[in-house]
Amino acid sequence: MTHEAKTPAAVREGRGRGRRPADEVRADVLRAVGDLLLAEGIAELTFERVARVAGVSKTTLYKWWPSKGALALDGYFHAVEQTLAFPDTGDIRADLLSQLRAFARVLTETPGGRILAELIGQSQTDPELAAAYRALYSSQRRRLAGERLERAREAGQLRADLDVQVLVDQLWGAVYHRLLIPDEPVTDDFVTALVGNLLDGVTGRGPATC
Known about the structure:
Elements: H1 9-14, H2 22-40, H3 47-54, H4 58-64, H5 68-80, H6 92-109, H7 112-123, H8 127-154, H9 164-180, H10 188-200
Helix pairs in contact: 2-3, 2-5, 5-7, 5-8, 6-7, 6-10, 7-8, 9-10
């Protein structure tokens, strides 16, 4: 069965019924892009194919996304957004483990890791893609993590003088390092040790006080 045959019913049924609301069209496009990426990777993604699957014109696509990379990033973020939603149970250790484990599963158990690595690599020589990566993906992920860590700091679970953005870099930066330079795998043991080292300290003096 081709991927086009799996196009969501909402998209198929919307075709030929006149002008659809912009929000509905955009959601259909992002769903189609996310499905294509996770099923086949970025190499097979083209504006022509997305237009056909989502039932929109290429002109519409180019109006919202100036490049294939920007379209791919937005679709990727849409595809993983719910999976990578940051929980807030009131326990920062549990929430960090939950979010990082979900991220690790996307990287290791779906095509998401390969797609993200390709997009990061391409952005090194494509200024438009680099700007899109910051605007559509990395800044959003950083914001969500920062907000959760700020709430933990306000609740007294983290030091009052903690720089939460540096902590974001320490946690997620370590995962990205293993993604891009795969000398060591991204495993659950790695995630558990990463959170433990940061929250408990590495001096051997026992858990740090908040």
